[in-house]
User: Fold this.
Amino acid sequence: MGLRESLRVSNVLISNPFGLMEERYLMGGRVELALPMAVVAAGQMLNVTAVTAADKFQIGFLAVAKAVPQFGKLAGYTLDAFEELKQTALPPVKKTPRGASTKPRARKTA
Assistant:
């Protein structure tokens, strides 16, 4: 084809490789963090990789700095979006008025 540049398929890659479904141990210690890392391939500007580790969901970002100048804000925006998703997906927490007892009342018998 005589192309001087490589053909760009995409500029963002999002992946979610298989994670650790249950807790794992290394030399007797519990694995607390599985860093989601990948590479930015030729022509790509941003890589987002998500991985699970037991009950944790972790997201890693890797970018070409000149192509994504506001890259540092991306993690904060992601955290905000996740909190918003939790608020919509989870049932609301009932608030107890101050001074009210959280113990169930005893039933009166006739």
Summary: The helical segments are 71-89. The beta strands are 12-15, 25-26, 29-30, 46-53, 56-63. The longest helix spans residues 71-89.
